[in-house]
């Protein structure tokens, strides 16, 4: 498998969960990492500053029409869906909320599955609704890999449980095992 991109979705408890994963990515990690965290629409994106200080990879807010760069972590801006176009560029959308959320995890995962197919990894972490479940199903249906935080270890298990119901082939794992799993996929 050639890993072309990683998409991550999380909600309630997500900052703590991401703090156990993103800083562990090595400085030479070759794929772009796109992250959706459900944040209130009027908040400025403090996640970028928070994670830029912790991570070895560059961290930025996703921008419309921006080509994806390898080894870069992109956070969805508040109140915008993030999509990946077939050309490997980012598209932002202010379309209707999906699962009561904008940005929505499903929107990112489904568009990334269309763009990257079997060369995509989708990761669903802690959260309080079912956003990400249909998106992870799309990732797996396109031949990509699905990883899900072990529900019992999630601050809120609803999102990982929904993802596993929608995509039973996804692998569950502890947060600290996610980066080694990604590195093993790259090494293959």
UniProtKB/TrEMBL annotation:
Domain of life: Bacteria
GO CC annotation, single: cytoplasm
Domain CheB-type methylesterase: start-end pairs: 1-188
Key words of the record: Chemotaxis, Hydrolase
Nucleus among keywords: no
Example GO BP: chemotaxis
Signal peptide: none
A GO molecular function held by the record: phosphorelay response regulator activity
Active site: 11, 38, 131
Reactions that this protein is recorded to catalyse: [protein]-L-glutamate 5-O-methyl ester + H2O = L-glutamyl-[protein] + methanol + H(+)
EC number(s) reported in the record: 3.1.1.61
Protein's name in the database: protein-glutamate methylesterase
